[in-house]
Please model this.
Amino acid sequence: MEIKLVEYNSDEYHKSVQLRERILRIPLGKRFNPEYLEQDKGDWHFAAFDNGEIIGTLIVKPLDKQTIKIRQVAVDTLQQGKGIGKKLMQYAEDFARKKGFKHAILHARFYTIAFYKKLGYKITSGPFIEVGMEHYKMEKDL
Model:
């Protein structure tokens, strides 16, 4: 497996969008539209590859000089439970740390909380609804 930064609007980016949509959106009866994907511009897009196929992806959005927001973490259904999400998160955190960022936040779907807790994230909010589903804000010092 290889993890790398992919360029916005590249072929690899569009393949990562397809994975995100299949894993995160379609199960909720939602699809991406061009206006929604415009917010990806300027963010860092990471993807995990196996034999040239994207098997995982996430986005890092700088919020200010100290803080990043990790969003749209998705791993192919057939690849889940193999440590790919953990490796993607660690890669993205290391990348941000090298750029001088000190803090990470994310909005975790209720069923992913245990995953993020294992990575050192702490819940910092009560439940709230995002994309029609219960989420919690979680944070970690880098």
Summary: The domain at 2-141 is CATH 3.40.630.30 (Aminopeptidase).
